[in-house]
Amino acid sequence: MPLKVIVVGAGIGGLSAAVALRQAGHEVEIFEKSAFAAEVGAALMVCPNGTRVLNKLGFSFSNARAIILKRINMMDGQTLGTTAAVDVSRAEETFGAKLWAVHRVDLHKELLRLALEEGGMGQPVKLRLSSEVATAEMDGTIVLKDGSVHTADLIVAADGLKSALQSIVSKEAGPPRATGLSAFRFLLDTKVLKADLKLAATLDRKGSSDVGSLQDTHDPTKVRYIVWYECRDGQTQNFVGIHPTRDVNGDNQEGKLRCDRWSNPPANLLYEHSRSTAAKCWPLFMHAPLPHWYKYRIVLIGDSAHPMLPFNAQGAVSAMEDGGALGYLFQNIEDAKLVPERLELFQRVRADRVARVQILSNVKLGREKQVEEQVRRYAEPRGSSKSGVLLAGAHKHSDTKQACQRTWSSTLLMIMGEFECLI
């Protein structure tokens, strides 16, 4: 008999888990609090460790209109010169899969197809909309806001940062810590960008299949930059800005980058476009690794278990890993009594790896030495120098550009290349 599985939340993590568990032969039902099954937001990078999971699920990057990324360029925001770069054009050879850029809406739509379509592996997933989960019990029972009760052999809590089930599983989650940084994002039609001669020239310098990270070098002591790449078959440009939080009035003002302090005109033009395209803004908070991810029949995944800062593009990707790992571990499991045992194994193979990624994601690329000791606490075996060796190697170079590139490569290898099991 297949297990009955309830997934709470129809975001990227919830859908990844639902598809993987469907393909593992189980009956899966998703409870989503919103009235529509759609994602919102901008684009994201799917790093090779996420790509391997999606490939296993039968995900079509063509359907999602994704772009293969070939190079990550750190650029001086004033001169637009490249200060450091990592060639990822051979990511498939190095890491086992490609590096992609995809719009969240398109990623979500393709995962939803894999979950709901008839004729795929396993039974189609059932989707319940306008079904907000209020609480759950250890025996596999969930209670909705409307008072209705539903039971399953396994409950997967993929309900995000403000999870209704996290406190049931783990009491150890401490309050988030403010980073002093905020982020903003906006999208720009490629045609609009190319119509501006200065921005079109900037695009040419960045490269159409490259990631550009425009650093504000006016004050190197502060984190202030824009990450830029395209999606949707090159028809849309995606921008994410990181900068010190400012105490200002107005819901949509906090995330405005102080591009007036940049001397390069294209940066100012991007700033003006962000003002005219209703940039979404939010403060960034740091979360400590959670010691417990499961309790009897309930397991936390994605942001409900390990919220991450955006510096290594691993938030959504780690949620995909969670989903893929659950699907693998629950293959050929038909006895509901084995659920707690499987979840204990899930935590054992996931928690330390995710903690390393979570901690590395607290700093931008090139500053990994700041968190080396924290990463080492979650090395395998615990306290070993395995993780530290990769980070330390970059600082043996006297040349700053070489050191930065080697640090990037080491971090990318650690994050993208070590997720080999359970896929």
Automatic annotation (TrEMBL):
It holds the Pfam family FAD_binding_3. Residues 4-238 form the FAD-binding domain. Transmembrane segments: none annotated. GO terms for molecular function: FAD binding; monooxygenase activity. Keywords: FAD, Flavoprotein, Monooxygenase, Oxidoreductase. InterPro entries: FAD-bd (IPR002938), FAD-dep_Monooxygenase_BioMet (IPR050493), FAD/NAD-bd_sf (IPR036188). PANTHER family: FAD-BINDING DOMAIN-CONTAINING PROTEIN-RELATED, MONOOXYGENASE. Belongs to the paxM FAD-dependent monooxygenase family. This is Salicylate hydroxylase (FAD dependent oxidoreductase). It comes from Paraphaeosphaeria minitans.
